[in-house]
Amino acid sequence: MPIHVSLIHFLFISAILFSFGVYAVITRRNAIMVLMGIELILNSANINFIAFGRYGGVSLDGQMASIFVIILAACEAAVALAIVLNIYQQFNTVNVDEINALKE
Questions:
Q1: pLDDT for 61-99, tens place per residue?
Q2: CA-based angle 88:92:98, to the nearest 5?
Q3: CA distance 79 to 26
Q4: Between 31-56 and 7-27, two packed helices, what is the crossing angle to 10 degrees?
Q5: What residues does each domain of the chain span?
Q6: CA–CA separation, 16 vs 22, rounded Å?
Q7: CB of 60 within 8 A of CB of 53?
Q8: Which class for 66: exposed (0-12), middle (13-18), buried (19 or more C-beta within 10 A)?
Q9: DSSP state, 50?
Q10: How far is CA 20 from CA 12, 16, 26, 90, 94, in A?
C-alpha cells in the first residue's frame, strides 16, 4: 500500500521547521545558534517553494526560487560566520547579550 504524499504534508513539515527556527532565533543567546535558526527558516521557505512548484503546476518557478534562496543562504552563512569570528576576536564571546558596544 503506497503512501500518498500531498501538499499538506510538505506544508506541515515546513511549518514545523519554521517554528523551530523562530524559537531558536528568539530564545538563543549564542550567535551561531541564532544563525542556525535563520537557516531553518530559510529551509522551510525552500520546502514551500518546492512544494508549490510541484503541486501548483508544471513550471519550474518554485525550483528556481529555491535554488536562489539556497545560494543566498550560503552567502549569508559565509558573511555571518566572518562577522561572528570578528566579534569573537574583539570581545572573546559569541553571546549576543554581552555584545552591546561597537568599536569606532
A1: 777 888 888 888 888 888 988 888 888 888 888 887 777
A2: 90
A3: 21
A4: 160
A5: 7-98
A6: 10
A7: yes
A8: buried
A9: H
A10: 12, 6, 10, 30, 21
CB burial string 13-51: b at 16+ within 10 A, e below:
ebeebbebbeebbeebeebeebbbbbbbbbbbbbbbbbb
Q: Is 72 helix (H, G, I), strand (E, B) or coil?
A: helix
Question: Which pTM value belongs to this model?
Answer: 0.78
Residue carrying C-alpha cell 545560494: 71
Helices 31-56/61-91 angle, 10° precision: 180
DSSP 92: S
Q: What is the pLDDT of residues 16-47, one digit of tens each?
A: 999 999 999 999 888 888 888 998 998 898 88
Domain 7-98 bears CATH identifier 1.10.287.3510: yes
